[in-house]
Write a structure and sequence with these properties.
By secondary structure, the chain is an alpha+beta fold. Helix 1 runs parallel beside helix 7. Among the domains are: about 70 residues, OB fold (Dihydrolipoamide Acetyltransferase, E2P), CATH 2.40.50; about 200 residues, Vaccinia Virus protein VP39 (Rossmann fold). Helices cover about 20% and strands about 30% of the residues.
Length: about 425
């Protein structure tokens, strides 16, 4: 467990309400035109934008205003007057109150359509790039897929204190969540046992905490420092349970395979995996390239990647512990013979890294991202340096939520 100290709620009460287009808790009837990349419905009243969580495109709804900003307002969904043909019954009774899911009320084919649209809009609006975006690759499992969850609880102040996830629209209040339908059955069973134990002994906790449940080859692990094993295709990967690793095993092999296919099809002899973590992309491509070079800012993760290469009997892999921003000077391969996989954190890459990537001049860049907005920004910068987008494909690693992964490939124009 780790300490959980969330910031203040962003949802104001009436005393903090900003005067503007609407009054506090004014109810308005609106038609929903589209969805945002946060999964909120978008309506317009005399040109004024109103965001409404839980509303779907094509619906007529009643919303209750709780926030005015300088050029938009936010409202809670009160009732649906005319429902979307794609509205479905959420599987979780806490949908709309728990902030974990945004799309349980939307049929799965339409979830995929909206994620494809949102990637296309990000590339066009933020990247200035109008390009074909492939259909969003679906997840074989839409529920029961998530192999890691991190529930929270605050300092126990009453007998029946909540253990669960942050409430929708806030960053402070925890909703009591007895079971999470997008988590695996094994996680839910272990989570139920932990909830019973924690709620039965609240006196031993002086502060709140964040719990960990990771479903892996070893079973459900709750110690963030324990070494665990995941299998992706024919590859075995060991890493610390608390470290980042993609949390939908049902689609992970196809996701990684697409990135490796794009790299291999370039004709490159060598693969360079920046931000390589425990070696997921690097090792998945090791059989197809003469050499693989990975770099990772975490020395511990780089060691794990090297150990994973040995575990999988690969002799052509080399891993460097250091900043990805200085990797290209240390590489023993030439850019024109290499394909580079870039899989940065949500904030994307900085210009120093992108400049070095451009100077390295690989045969192909495969940019993997969990944030299409920062991906579009970085791709725009690369395009200004003479690159062109040849492929964009979203992958749905997070069904029922607003999140989407995206793999884009670039070559010299």
């Amino acid at each position: 467990m780790s300490e959980f100290e969330p910031p203040q709620s962003r949802k104001p009460d009436s005393s903090k309400f900003r005067e503007g287009k609407f009054t506090y808790h004014q109810e308005i009837e609106v038609e929903i035109a589209s969805l945002t990349n946060l999964g909120e419905g978008v309506a317009r009243v005399d040109g004024w934008v109103v965001f409404i969580a839980g509303a779907l495109a094509g619906e007529k709804v009643v919303a209750r205003i709780w926030h005015n900003a300088a050029n938009f307002s936010r409202g809670d969904l009160v009732r649906v007057i005319v429902p979307s043909a794609h509205r479905v019954q959420p599987r979780c009774e806490l949908f709309g109150e728990c902030g974990g899911c945004q799309y349980q009320n939307l049929a799965y084919p339409q979830q995929l359509e909206w994620k494809q649209k949102q990637v296309a809009e990000a590339f066009e609006r933020l990247g200035g790039i109008k390009t074909k975006v492939d259909a969003c690759h679906p997840s074989p499992k839409q529920y029961g897929y998530r192999s890691k969850i991190t529930p929270h609880f605050m300092t126990p102040r009453r007998a029946d204190f909540p253990i669960g996830f942050l409430a929708a629209g806030t960053s402070r209040r925890v909703v009591d969540v007895p079971k999470c339908p997008i988590a695996t059955d094994a996680i839910n069973a272990a989570y139920a046992r932990s909830r019973k134990d924690i709620k039965g002994n609240p006196g031993r906790f002086e502060r709140g905490a964040t719990l960990l449940f990771r479903d892996c080859e070893e079973g459900v692990v709750t110690d963030s420092r324990q070494v665990v094993t995941e299998k992706v295709g024919a590859i075995q990967l060991k890493f610390l349970a608390g470290e980042f690793f993609q949390n939908n095993p049902s689609v992970l092999e196809q996701f990684v395979g697409h990135a490796i296919k794009l790299a291999h099809e370039s004709g490159a002899k060598h693969l360079v995996d920046t931000y390589c973590g425990s070696g997921l992309f690097a090792l998945s491509g090791a059989r197809l390239f003469d050499s693989v070079n990975g770099v990772e800012v975490s020395a511990e993760a780089a060691r794990k990647a090297a150990e994973n290469a040995t575990l999988n009997h690969f002799l052509n892999c080399r891993f460097i512990a250091g900043s990805a921003e200085s990797i290209f000077k240390k590489l023993p391969v030439e850019g024109h013979e290499s394909a580079v996989i870039v899989d940065p954190p949500r904030k994307g890459c900085d210009e120093a890294f992108l400049d070095q990537l451009n100077a390295f001049a690989p045969r192909r860049i495969i940019y993997v991202s969990c944030a299409p907005d920062t991906q579009a920004r970085d791709v725009k910068y690369l395009c200004s340096k003479g690159w062109k987008v040849i492929s964009v494909r979203p992958f749905d690693l997070f069904p029922q939520t607003r999140h989407v992964e995206c793999i884009a490939a670039l070559e010299r124009a």
